[in-house]
Protein: Non-structural maintenance of chromosomes element 1 homolog
Amino acid sequence: MAAQITDAHRRFLQVLMSHGIMEGSEARKLHRRCCEIHKVYYAHDKLDDFISAINSHLQPLFMQIRKGMSEDDGRAHYALVNLAETEVTKMASDYTENELELFRKTMDLIILSENGFASSTDILNLADQLKTKKMKKKEAEQVLKVFVEDKWLSERNGEYTLHTRCIIEMEQYILSNYQDAARKCNICHSLAIQSQVCESCGIGMHLPCVRKYFRAQIEPRCPQCNDFWSCDIPGTKQ
Structure:
């Protein structure tokens, strides 16, 4: 039986829907504000229970609020996910066929790369190789800008990676379709695009998880095989 929901739950859902994705601290503030406005019981440590109640009502609609992590800083995020549609088809109503093809090819570059990034040069070189309809580079630049604005991609100094929203929404699709390249983080067990990999056993870890896991260790050793972790630990002075 679905948990009871109140107007506070409904308001929270409406605001999250308008944002698409929300950082954890913002979600906690919104939780408090919704409870105060509608004069319902508020507990600062019950956000996940509050969201579970909403999810129990979203289930028949094949929707779900999911929690994920930013690969940049390790912060929690919440996103509303459509479970009925899979993979890139959920983007089909917003983009043309050749825009979707450019997105798929960009995803290929990012997921198959060593560091989880693809350069704008490499992506733009794909624009005139599209099977659906070739794109001029100027047009492709504009499409990439829209993907960033819509929170499917993130861009930093001409390098593109998957936005946190995209990772939360498409985790299952990516794990199914990139079985040889995609891996889950050995620490938090969610999909890791930007990660470090153990040279000995091949497990991967998000950079924030690497930083956190090795913080207390004098000599960094792989949590799986116990071999020396040869990658540079993020945030430590060499």
In short: The chain has a mean pLDDT of 90. The radius of gyration is 20 Å. Strands lie at 21-23, 63-69, 76-82, 118-119, 153-156, 159-162, 183-184, 191-192, 195-197, 204-206. The chain has three domains: 7-61, 88-178, 185-237.
